[in-house]
Automatic annotation (TrEMBL):
Source organism, top-level taxon: Bacteria
Family of this protein: Belongs to the EPSP synthase family. MurA subfamily.
Binding site for UDP-N-acetyl-alpha-D-glucosamine: 102, 131-135, 316, 338
Protein name according to UniProt: UDP-N-acetylglucosamine 1-carboxyvinyltransferase
Record carries keyword Methyltransferase: no
Gene: murA
Role: Cell wall formation. Adds enolpyruvyl to UDP-N-acetylglucosamine.
InterPro entries: Enolpyruvate_Tfrase_dom, Enolpyruvate_Tfrase_sf, MurA_subfamily, RNA3'P_cycl/enolpyr_Trfase_a/b, UDP_GlcNAc_COvinyl_MurA
Residues bound to phosphoenolpyruvate: 22-23
Taxonomic source organism: Methylocystis bryophila
Localization terms from the record: Cytoplasm
Domain (Enolpyruvate transferase): residue spans on this chain: 8-417
Length: 431
């Protein structure tokens, strides 16, 4: 298994191109199952999760063709892919494939909507809590699906087709909203989603579905209305920039000090995180092609944050912000309200000298004057990158093991960072 080695203490200076968002690219790829025609997606990131989903979709019958790079895109990013699901050849999404990532479970919705049946293994994904699927299944049942759980698989049927309905989510769920959007687009009649997720990736999917002939109004708000149509056609869509990647690098620059332009990053997707980084002591401004993050000289101030659904502070940046706070001049409280077990990075940050105490759903971080390099282990995607941020500021060498977690969601991380002056290298594993 590959490792990442970092020698800390270098300021970051330069430009980091922000890739297409993993959490938008995945549902967009899945939407290709809704039509016989070709869906073209631009600005696709090159990530392990994308490759894994490509395998799953190919198994269902999707022809996946990589076309090339977006005009003007940096050399290794922004690919264009064509996905064509002329026929669905297999309605099963097997355990071996789905257990690796959460989003793959969402294929259930387009398969049900298009051909009335699906058999999908219960999902995997980052180990950050129990991550039930009750609300996802509730949404499909409201639309008329019959659902059974058999030997670890969700077996769903809607032989007469799905029918529009009112769906009230008792808790905001990104995956539930994605699935409901896809299924309701091909259901008979009108569907209304209440307490829907408002994340930018929801808006991105809705825009793509509308470009394919769906009739969705209100995406980005808590109530979304979908008028079902009898079929969708092909379409074209550019994946929105990754706000979590952008927020992560903003926090890295705040940690090391320096001056970096995050090209392609959008402030409107990231306001709560930008506010927190500013309060911590970095300057963040909109530049011609993205966001500029600067911290010179001044120390870091402690800042309390509380994760919550968009537009609040994202849970996917909680670990990274905690890493930043390990060097603040004082005590901060970081509260996680979305996932009950998303503090796996705490014990690894402690290896680098961080002083963090857990109190229920909060972490109390007492800033340390110095972090020291050590061997650490990546436990999940965002936890791993929090170790990278800490390693960039730690004295001496930090080695991060189990880098495959990072590869799920960060494209060319070591190249992007070393291009800005960090001493970061990937060491290929022998196994
Ligand atoms: C691929 C992808 O886009 N993943 C993101 C997505 O995950 P994902 O879509 O899995 O997260 P959800 O928004 O569904 O989960 C939010 C909360 O609802 C709970 N819940 C969810 C479904 C359900 O049926 N029952 C239930 O109780 C979850 O346990 C969690 O406590 O949104 C999360 C919250 O922003 C992000 O951290 C993930 O990066
Ligand atoms: C939790 C994440 O991903 P997933 O939902 O795929 O586990 C994430 O992207 O931070």
């Amino acid at each position: 298994m590959d490792k990442i080695k970092i020698v800390g203490g270098h300021k970051l200076k330069g430009t980091i191109p922000i890739s297409g968002a993993k959490n938008a690219a995945l549902p967009l790829m899945i939407a290709s199952l809704l039509t016989r025609e070709t869906l073209t997606l631009e600005n696709m990131p090159l990530l392990a999760d994308v490759t894994q989903l490509e395998r799953i979709l190919t198994n269902h019958g999707v022809d996946y063709a990589i076309a090339g790079k977006r005009a003007g895109a940096s050399p290794d990013t922004g690919r264009t892919v064509h996905l064509t699901a002329r026929e669905i050849v297999d309605t099963t999404a097997p355990y071996e494939m789905v257990s690796r990532m959460r989003a793959s479970f969402w294929v259930l919705a387009p398969l049900l909507a298009r051909i009335g049946e699906a058999r999908v293994s219960l999902p995997g994904g980052c180990a950050i809590g129990t991550r039930p699927v009750d609300l996802l299944l509730m949404a499909m049942e409201k639309l008329g699906a019959e659902i059974a759980i058999e030997n670890g698989y969700v077996v769903a049927q809607a032989k007469k087709g799905l029918v529009g309905a009112e769906i009230n989510f008792e808790k905001v769920t990104v995956g539930g909203t994605h699935m409901a959007l896809m299924a309701a687009s091909l259901a008979k009649g009108t569907t209304v989603l209440r307490n829907a997720a408002r994340e930018p990736e929801i808006v991105d999917l809705a825009e793509c579905l509308n470009a394919m002939g769906a009739r969705i109004k209100g995406a980005g708000q808590s109530t979304i209305e979908i008028q079902g149509v009898s079929s969708l056609h092909g379409g074209w869509h550019a994946v929105l920039p990754d706000r979590i990647e952008a927020g992560t690098y903003a926090m890295a620059v705040a940690m090391t000090g320096g001056d970096v332009v995050l090209s392609g990053a959008r402030a409107d997707l990231l306001q709560a995180a930008i506010d927190a980084v500013r309060l911590a002591g970095a300057e963040v401004s909109e530049s011609e092609d993205g966001l500029r993050v600067v911290r010179n000289g001044s120390g870091l101030a402690p800042v309390d944050v509380r994760t919550a659904p968009f537009p609040e502070f994202p849970t996917d940046l909680q670990a990274q912000f905690m890493a930043l706070m390990t060097r603040a001049n004082g005590v901060s409280r970081i509260t996680e309200t979305i996932f009950e077990n998303r503090f796996m990075h705490v014990q690894e940050l402690a290896r680098l000298g961080a002083r963090i105490r857990l109190e229920g759903d909060s972490a109390i971080v007492t800033g340390a004057e110095e972090l020291q390099g050590a061997q650490v282990m990546a436990t999940d995607l965002r936890a791993s990158v929090s170790l990278v941020i800490a390693g960039l500021a730690a004295k001496g060498e930090t080695t991060i093991n189990r880098v495959y977690h990072l590869d799920r969601g960060f494209e060319r991380l070591e190249k992007k960072l070393s291009g800005c002056g960090a001493e970061v290298e990937r060491v290929a594993g022998r196994d």
